[in-house]
Write a structure and sequence with these properties.
Layout lengths: L13 H10 L16 E8 L5 E7 L15 E4 L2 E4 L1 E4 L2 E3 L14 E3 L2 E6 L7 E3 L2 E2 L9 E5 L6 E2 L4 E2 L10 H9 L5 E4 L26 H9 L3 H6 L2 E3 L11 H8 L16 H4 L5 E4 L4 E5 L15 H18 L5 E5 L8 E3 L2 E4 L3 H8 L11 E6 L5 E6 L5 E5 L26 E7 L3 E7 L7 E7 L4 E8 L2 E4 L8
Length: about 475
């Protein structure tokens, strides 16, 4: 057999095993063509509601002639038992739908690949796709990478054209490789995977040749290629960001990343279904001990406060009641809430005082918990959206907050330091301590030793330099480096 290009595009140690198999003319399924490693574009494990782990694979293999549904999918070996992965979504070109861009700056999303999946049993100890082992969830993960806002920004409306081929200007691959080097047990992505919305102008050098739009080529460039080593290192919990709402990257979100079953009503292919597809119910992922993460979809939230008569108000109010139910379930005294948009944190504004947290979510939350915003049991919140690092603890008994939205997209300006003493992200939230920086990087959270139920959070630069260390215990977040409040 003649070797043709990269045989396993997920990279790292996976490549050597896959290459050897492919040169023998087989993948995990012997002569089964669909299981040949050369067709596998990516393979990883995603964790959803109830800690259900699902193996996913993206394949470029197309049976000729076309065969039964799923024939494009590779075989999967689970604890030595082999079966074929199920087809989640086959190749398609989605008709052009209304997008966040003008029609002349948009195009139909092309997906010339199949997405395959298999729900993994809780007792899975050895899982292979095309001969390569996939990382499996641990009952009590010790190290969790938290990162977000990873794609390369190409957006005509903002005249923003990041140099996607420059590892300094867009360092997501460096961030992902560095994070993989810490050998995490789990990865939590807090949203915004896809940013290449519009075609690079002819007079902008840095993004020439980049794919754009909402199809597979852009998802491959923005996520699957640069994150290859991190996808191979650990299972992922995936939070949806505003860049994955239906008028933007929602079609790819539902094909590749969402943990619910794929179907037309939740595909973002038709704007007629957006009122359903732009919202997903929250769910919990247990982290062992007495800690859980509650994942919340805020992809379509706006900035302005909502009125009780607004349709979104009722949606988010109901979903925060579900968050309260999840937080109240037994044995989870330390609930960590995660969504994309910061609620008790700041958005820096060049030359002006920073903006508060998301007013729309605050208004729905305050209708249920007027002083606390979060329900009892929620001690900490993790977010992205703002492209910097923030760690905030409050004197007023509010849940502590960490923002980790600095893993690739253009950074925001730094927050003022010192911060005005009366600065607050929400009415009634009185800051005790704040730590922040505006540099590319990620957060590593590590379980603290018993009897503590908290976690240690360390902020690292893209290259792995330790920037700050914070200890969480209940609602408190104590960091070794802090900013200042004016007297």
């Amino acid at each position: 057999m003649t070797q043709q290009g990269p045989l396993w595009k997920v990279g790292g140690a996976m490549a050597a095993t896959a290459a050897a198999l492919a040169l023998q003319g087989c993948g995990s399924g012997g002569s089964d063509a669909a299981s040949n490693a050369r067709h596998i574009e990516a393979a990883w494990v995603v964790v959803g509601a109830g800690n259900q782990a699902t193996a996913r694979a993206i394949t470029s293999y197309t049976p000729v002639p076309a065969a039964t549904p799923g024939a494009a999918c590779p075989q999967i070996s689970i604890n030595g038992q082999t079966s074929r992965m199920g087809l989640r979504a086959g190749p398609a070109t989605a008709p052009l739908r209304p997008t966040a861009s003008a029609p002349e700056d948009s195009k139909p999303a092309e997906f010339p690949v199949s997405v395959c999946e298999t729900a993994l049993p809780a007792d899975a100890t050895d899982v292979k796709v095309a001969g390569q082992s996939l990382p499996l969830p641990k009952a009590q993960p010790q190290r969790i990478v938290v990162l977000g806002d990873t794609g390369c920004r190409m957006k005509k409306a903002d005249n923003a054209w990041q140099a996607c081929g420059d590892a300094v200007a867009w360092p997501f691959a460096t961030v992902a490789d560095t994070a993989a080097g810490f050998k995490p047990d789990l990865v939590l992505h807090v949203g915004d995977y896809h940013y290449r919305e519009n075609a690079c102008p002819a007079d902008v050098k840095g993004c020439q040749g980049s794919p754009w739009g909402y199809g597979w080529d852009t998802w491959q460039a923005d996520l699957f290629k640069p994150a290859a080593k991190l996808l191979a290192a650990a299972p992922w919990v995936m939070v949806r960001g505003n860049h994955e709402e239906c008028a933007r990257g929602g079609q790819g979100w539902f094909r590749f990343l969402d943990t619910q079953p794929f179907g037309e009503a939740r595909s973002c292919n038709s704007a007629a279904n957006d009122a359903t597809a732009n919202y997903s119910d929250p769910y919990a992922v247990r982290l062992g001990g007495n800690t859980q993460v509650v994942v919340f979809d805020s992809a379509k939230v706006g900035r302005a406060a909502l009125k009780p008569s607004d349709a979104q108000f009722a949606i988010y109010q109901k979903q925060f009641q579900q968050v309260a139910d999840l937080a109240a379930k037994g044995g989870t005294a330390n609930t960590i809430f995660t969504n994309h948009h910061p609620i008790l944190a700041f958005a820096p504004i060049p030359g002006a005082a920073p903006a508060p947290g998301n007013l729309a979510l605050q208004s729905a939350m305050a209708s249920l918990y007027p002083q606390a915003y979060y329900p009892p049991g929620v001690n900490l919140a993790l977010h992205g959206h703002v492209h910097n690092f923030q760690a905030i603890s409050f004197k007023s008994g509010h849940a502590a907050t960490i923002v980790s939205g600095d893993a690739g997209d253009n950074l925001d300006v730094a927050l003022p330091d010192p911060l005005a003493a009366d600065a607050t992200p929400a009415p009634g939230a009185v800051i005790d301590r704040i730590t922040h920086h505006a540099s590319f990087g990620f957060v590593l959270m590590e379980r603290r030793a018993a009897p503590s139920s908290g976690w240690t959070f360390q902020a690292y630069s893209a290259a792995g330099k330790l920037m700050a260390t914070c200890q969480q215990e209940g609602l408190q977040l104590d960091c070794d480096k802090t900013g200042f409040l004016t007297p």
